[in-house]
Amino acid sequence: MVEETIFSKIIRKEIPADIVYQDDLVTAFRDISPRAPSHILIIPNKLIPTVNDVEQEDELMLGRMFTAARKIAKDEGIDEDGYRLIMNCNAHGGQEVYHIHMHLLGGRPLGPLLLG
Ligand code: AMP
């Protein structure tokens, strides 16, 4: 049994979030605890707990996460200067919310390592 997280409620708009993009496959919203001027989480609308649970049938959605990231980076005005995309998996990866998500971080130079 896969347990929902707070992110499912954000997708369904049952709790507030600053949603910057949503389509049939993915939702993107600003991180509640931003670690860069632009810090956005891009998540699948379908609940997948970790990257270890990704299946071949998810490949379209995974590609959409990247095209959404490209669009959002442009909308944020950070595409030319650059940005970082991060996905954390399980305890050693520092994953806190078990609904896969891509962190999009930018708006300042990030240095060699950020989350950890
Ligand atoms: P991770 O450590 O990769 O699992 O990242 C989880 C991220 O979710 C953290 O950066 C949190 O700040 C963020 N987060 C948790 N709850 C919320 C929320 N309700 N709205 C927006 N971001 C959230």
What is the secondary structure topology, with strand pairs?
Blueprint: H1 6-11, E1 19-22, E2 26-30, E3 38-44, H2 59-76, E4 83-86, H3 90-93, E5 102-106
Antiparallel strand pairs: 1-2, 2-3, 3-5, 4-5
Bound molecules: adenosine monophosphate (AMP).
Adenosine monophosphate binds near residues 17, 32 and 96.
Structure description:
With 116 residues, this protein is α+β, with helices and mostly antiparallel strands. It has three helices and five strands. The chain has a five-stranded antiparallel beta sheet. The longest helix has 18 residues, at 59-76. It is globular. It has one domain: HIT-like (HIT family, subunit A). The protein binds adenosine monophosphate. Adenosine monophosphate (AMP) binds next to loops.
